[in-house]
Structure formats: C-alpha cells, structure tokens
Write a structure and sequence with these properties.
Length: 214
C-alpha cells in the first residue's frame, strides 16, 4: 500500500490553500489517500470560531467528490485535547506497516517542538513540510538538527520506510488563511472562490462567522 497522508488542522474554515496543497502532495508523493483530520479540541488555541461539528462538516463536504481525499473523525472519538501523537498512534494501530506521512504547513512545522510528545512523532510517521508563502525551513536550532539527522529529498525514502524522515515540498503558494476568511465574512463580504461552493454554503446556511447573511 502506498503511503497515507495525514493532514490535521483546525480548518476554521477549510479553504483552497489546504485543498490545493493536499492535492499536490497526493499526486507528487503518490499517496494512497490524504486523510483530513479536523481537530476536535485544538490544544494550541483557546477557542475556535465555528463549533467543532461544523468545522468537521465543512471538511466533509470539501473532500466528498475528490478521489483519494477522506475525512477522519478520530479526534472526535477521543476525550480531551486533540493531540497529533494520539492520532498517529490510532492510525498506526490500524496500519502497522504502512508509511504514514504527517502533512504540516511551514508555520505549523516551526512550532513542532511545542507539540505534545513531539519527539515521538518520527517514530510513528514521516513529516512532510509544505511550503507556505513567506516561510523558510530552519537549518539551525533543534529543528535544524532534526532536519540534518532525518531530512530526505527522495520520495522513494517515504515509500521505502514507514516513518522517521522529514521531507520538504514546495506547493503552489496560495496566500489564503482561515483568519482572513473569517475577517472578510465578519465584514459582510463574500468568501466565494477562496473555498469550494459546498463549504461556502455551510457557512452561509449556518451563519457561523457572521450574524449578517451574505
Ligand atoms: P488560521 O488562519 O485560523 O490560523 P489556517 O488557514 O492557517 O488557519 P489551519 O487549519 O490552522 O489553517 O491549518 C492547518 C494546516 O494547513 C497547517 O499545517 C497550516 O500550516 C496549513 N495551511 C494553512 N493555510 C495554508 C495555505 N494557504 N497553503 C498551504 N498550507 C496551509
């Protein structure tokens, strides 16, 4: 079985920046699938804007027609903070020998050492760092050392072992962020073309980011 991509996030809301990056990685790294894992209770955030079930719903409608994209509700089946390490343990139990590739944007990767049990992640998965506009992969400090010890530029390495490597991949840079989408909706503007229409419809119907209807 080809590697499984695991893409966690708050997805508040999901947008084309997330989807295009995941699609390019699905193709370039020859993943069998990309699993989107919406965070039920994100440990790095005091609160989210849309309720967890609605964020999950938006991811569900965003991926529904795309072969190779699936949504995973494992973080909704656990109590307490949604730690990535617990998600990786759960997927690893399901697939003991398959290559698992944890997808992070560059900004998320730069915060890696603040993650719960971060130093165990490479025992369970590879880390794929998708470039995001304006960010550069660090070559000094703890993350620099981690990269020097585990970095690879070979997709075959990701297929040939089940975990343990860091792979840096440039994706088409779409300067879209959920924060800005929420702000523009709150200002009464329309987020059309920043996300699939199906996601926009959930936002419009629920009014989750604005009292005012679009
Ligand atoms: P917010 O603006 O609320 O911080 P976000 O747009 O960064 O949200 P998240 O759900 O926090 O979205 O991100 C999930 C993952 O997607 C993270 O690893 C993040 O780095 C990555 N990501 C976010 N936006 C983009 C983008 N435009 N292109 C590529 N990756 C992205």
């Amino acid at each position: 079985m080809n590697p499984i991509g695991i893409f966690g996030g708050t997805f508040d809301p999901i947008h084309y920046g997330h989807l295009r990056s995941a699609f390019e990685l699905l193709q370039a790294l020859r993943f069998s699938e990309v699993r989107f894992v919406p965070s039920a209770d994100p440990p790095h955030r005091n609160s989210t804007f849309a309720p967890a079930r609605l964020r999950y719903r938006m991811v569900e409608v965003a991926v529904t027609d795309q072969p190779g994209f699936v949504v995973d509700d494992c973080e909704f089946r656990r109590e307490g903070p949604s730690y990535t390490i617990d998600t990786l343990i759960a997927v690893r139990e399901e697939h003991p020998d398959v290559s698992l590739c944890l997808i992070t944007g560059m900004d998320a990767y730069l915060g890696l050492t603040s993650w719960h049990r971060w130093d165990e992640i490479l025992n369970l998965a590879h880390i794929i760092v998708a470039h995001r506009p304006g960010w550069k992969l660090p070559d000094t400090g703890e993350l620099g050392e981690l990269l020097a010890a585990n970095g690879t530029t070979s997709v075959d390495d990701l297929h040939g072992s089940s975990c343990g490597r860091i792979y840096d991949h440039a994706v088409t840079q779409l300067e879209i962020a959920s924060t800005e989408i929420r702000a523009l909706i709150a200002a009464g503007r329309d987020p059309r073309f920043l996300m699939p229409d199906s996601v926009r419809e959930v936002i419009v119907d629920s009014g989750c980011y604005a009292k005012r209807k679009l």
